[in-house]
Amino acid sequence: MSEWRIWWDYQLPGTFALLEELYLVRYPQLIEDLPHGASMLKRLEIEDSSKLDLASLFNFSGLLSLKLAHVNIEPLDLDPLQELEELDVLHPAAGLLPLCLLLDVPITSLKIACFNSPPETEDNRLSLHYLHIEGERDPNHFPHGEYDFGLERLYDLTVYGTLCFPEEGLCARNLTMLVIHGSHNPEALPKRMRSSLTSLLLLSVEDCTEFESFLEDRLPTDLTTPTISNCQNLKLLPETMLSSLTSLQSLSIIGCYVLKSFLEGGLPASLRTLCIKDCGLLMNLNNWPLRSLVSLEHLEIKGASNVHLFPERYLLPITLTHLCIENFHDLKILSGLELQHSYRLEELKISNCKGQVQG
Question: What are phi and psi for residue 77, nearest 5 degrees?
Answer without folding.
Answer: -130, 115
